[in-house]
Design brief:
This protein is α/β, with parallel strands linked by helices. The protein has one domain: Alpha/Beta hydrolase fold, catalytic domain (Rossmann fold). 38% of the residues lie in helices and 24% in strands. It contains eight helices and ten strands. The strands form two sheets. It has an eight-stranded mixed beta sheet, with helices on both faces. The protein has a two-stranded antiparallel sheet with strand order 8-9. Strand 1 and strand 2 form a beta hairpin. Helix 2 packs parallel to helix 8 and helix 6 runs parallel beside helix 7. The longest helix has 19 residues.
Length: 240
């Protein structure tokens, strides 16, 4: 890693949630030239620690800003409570609605109170991997006043999510980046083993039928951070 990329600032905050009856850590990446008198778009990442530690999203962002001239952004990683992950990220989970309320009514207001953000749906992105991509997409669908953009890494787009998409008449307002690995045909989950490649291809068809502004990528890769990490710079470049 180049020394200059290590100069970016990452802050950690603990937020207490009334909806989850729990505390969560937020990791906030600020670009090197962060100026509170300016305003910045924000990416909200599920599995926050994993996005920062395994996805190296802060390093990628710093490098792209410095070398490629990408628009500087704030990145917020929302740490997950692993034993509760499926309950909070899966649409049929018993903590799904409380988690979505936590993000929309507690996390976003907290960030926008303390940081210089652009407060409109075109400049908020929800991002996630696997079930984290699922809850990110549902957050956008259910709260279009907050965000029009979703970054999905190998989304766990089961029939319940596909049915949710079918309810929409027009998704031309949705800007979505989808990545799936061609080797993701037998992914083990809490719900069994699934062909994520087929699930994503089927979801792609639905999104296209709904006129989504969709950037869809299939590359050789498995359902692991080693695959997603290498693809994140392309995803960031898509949005910025």
């Amino acid at each position: 890693m180049s020394f200059k990329y290590s100069k970016r600032k990452i802050e950690k905050h603990t937020i207490s949630s009334q909806f989850l009856n729990d505390e969560r850590t937020l990791r906030i990446y600020l670009p090197q030239e962060y100026d509170p008198l300016q305003s910045y778009p924000v990416i909200y990442c599920q599995d926050g620690a994993e996005f920062f530690n395994f996805g190296r999203i802060a390093t990628h962002a710093s490098q792209l800003i410095e070398e490629e001239g990408l628009q500087p952004m704030i990145i917020v990683g929302i740490d997950v409570n692993l034993p509760q992950r499926s309950a909070e990220y899966a649409p049929n989970g018993n903590r799904f609605i409380p988690y979505c309320n936590f993000v929309t009514q507690e996390v976003i207001p907290e960030i926008e109170k303390n940081y210089a953000t652009i407060q409109d749906p075109a400049h908020r992105i929800f991002a996630g991997d696997s079930l984290g991509a699922t809850v990110s997409l549902h957050l956008v669908l259910d709260h279009p006043h907050l965000s029009h953009k979703c970054l999905a890494l190998s989304g766990a787009f089961f029939p319940s999510t596909q049915q949710r998409l079918e309810q929409e008449e027009d998704l031309s307002w949705l800007d979505m980046y989808m990545l799936i690995g061609t080797e993701e045909t037998d992914v083990k989950t809490d719900y069994g083993v699934f062909d994520f490649l087929s699930l994503n291809r089927d979801t792609k068809t639905i999104l296209q039928q709904k006129n989504t502004s969709l950037y869809y990528v299939e590359n050789k890769g498995k359902h692991i951070w080693g695959f997603w990490q290498n693809e994140l710079p392309h995803a960031l470049s898509h949005f910025f």
